[in-house]
Amino acid sequence: MKRSAHVAAPLLASAALAILAGCRQQEMQRCVDENNKVVADNLCGKPQQGMRSDGHGGFIPFIIPYRYYYGGTGGFGLGSTVGGGAFNPTPGRSYATPSTRGGFGSTMSGGGEGAGE
């Protein structure tokens, strides 16, 4: 009886390792502002105009640079700070968006909308 226990343990360990290797977690794709703070996903892909004080009582129009941020640390929550990722997706990787996280929905693979810097 002890002999089968010695065979089963390594077999179970290798099966678990094979299963985990096949379950690669998707990285995150988030829409961020110029300060790397997560904003609503629908803001990416279209320029947003804002107004900035000129320091003399007037205002200067400017474009707010919302863009996608791929991978790295941080969450999907609005206002979360992201880091350790990139503004360009890594080819061959798939990214979870706020609408697909935690489910089996469609995802965007590298090179799609918002991939440019």
Note the topology.
Blueprint: H1 2-22, E1 27-32, E2 48-53, E3 59-64, E4 67-70, E5 94-96, E6 108-109
Parallel strand pairs: 1-5
Antiparallel strand pairs: 1-4, 2-3, 5-6
Structural class: alpha+beta
How much helix is in the residues? 10-25%
Low-confidence blocks of residues: 17-22, 102-117
Globally, the shape reads elongated
Strand arrangement within the widest β-sheet reads 4-1-5-6
Q: Tally the helices: what do you get?
A: 1
Sheet of most strands: 4 strands, mixed
Order of helices and strands: HEEEEEE
Please report which band the strand proportion falls in: under 5%, 5-15%, 15-25%, 25-35%, 35-45% or over 45%: 15-25%
Explain this structure.
The protein is of the alpha+beta class. Helices cover 18% and strands 23% of the residues. It has one helix at residues 2-22, and strands spanning 27-32, 48-53, 59-64, 67-70, 94-96, 108-109.
Structure summary:
The chain contains one helix and six strands, in the order H-E-E-E-E-E-E. With 117 residues, it is α+β, with helices and mostly antiparallel strands. The strands form two sheets. Strands 4-1-5-6 form a four-stranded mixed beta sheet, with no helix packed on it. The chain has a two-stranded antiparallel sheet with strand order 2-3.
Short key terms for the protein model shown above:
single chain; 117 residues; alpha+beta; 4-stranded mixed sheet; 1 helix; 18% helix
